[in-house]
Structure formats: C-alpha cells, structure tokens
Design a protein that fits this description.
- It is a single chain.
- By secondary structure, this protein is mostly helical.
- The protein has one domain.
- The protein has 4 helices and 2 strands; from the N terminus they run βααβαα.
- Strands 1-2 form a two-stranded antiparallel ribbon.
- It is elongated, with a radius of gyration of 14 Å.
- Bound molecules: zinc ion (ZN).
- The site of zinc ion (ZN) has 6 residues, from α2.
Amino acid sequence: MELVLRNMTEDIVLRKIDQMKNGLDCCTCEHCRLDIASYALNRLPAKYVATTQGELLSRLDTLEPQFDATVMTVILQGAMIVKLHPRHK
Ligand SMILES: [Zn+2]
C-alpha cells in the first residue's frame, strides 16, 4: 500500500462542511464551499499524517470532541464571511 502525506485537517473540514451544509445559511456551491474551507484551514492547526487512504478514513473517526467543536465554530465564522462577501453573483 502506498503511503501518502495528508493534512487531516483538510479532510476533517471538508467533511464537516458537507455535514453542516443545510444549517449554514449561506450559498454552498463548490466555489463557496472551498472559500469556507480555505477560511477554516487558515485558522486551524494542520494535522499531518503519513498514511494510506483507507487508514486515513478510519483515523478521521477518532477525533477529539474538542477539536470537532473548534472546527465547527471556525466553519460557522467562514460561512458568515462568505455570505457577506460572496465571490460570485
Ligand atoms: Zn456560492
């Protein structure tokens, strides 16, 4: 199995945005989704792991609840900013 270097925070944030999508009260097209992700990722610590794709997915389920709460807070802030300043019409 080939090892890859991954920033787990990236997967965590994208997954969380998809889970929270309906409650975000802002546009969640691909452009806005990635804008929210960029906002969040610039404010959260990177969590790099050398892993295989399969192992990565199982690791994502072993997150500390505190980090999960922080991720949600930052995503909500990002959604608010994207809502105020969407980069498309
Ligand atoms: Zn949009």
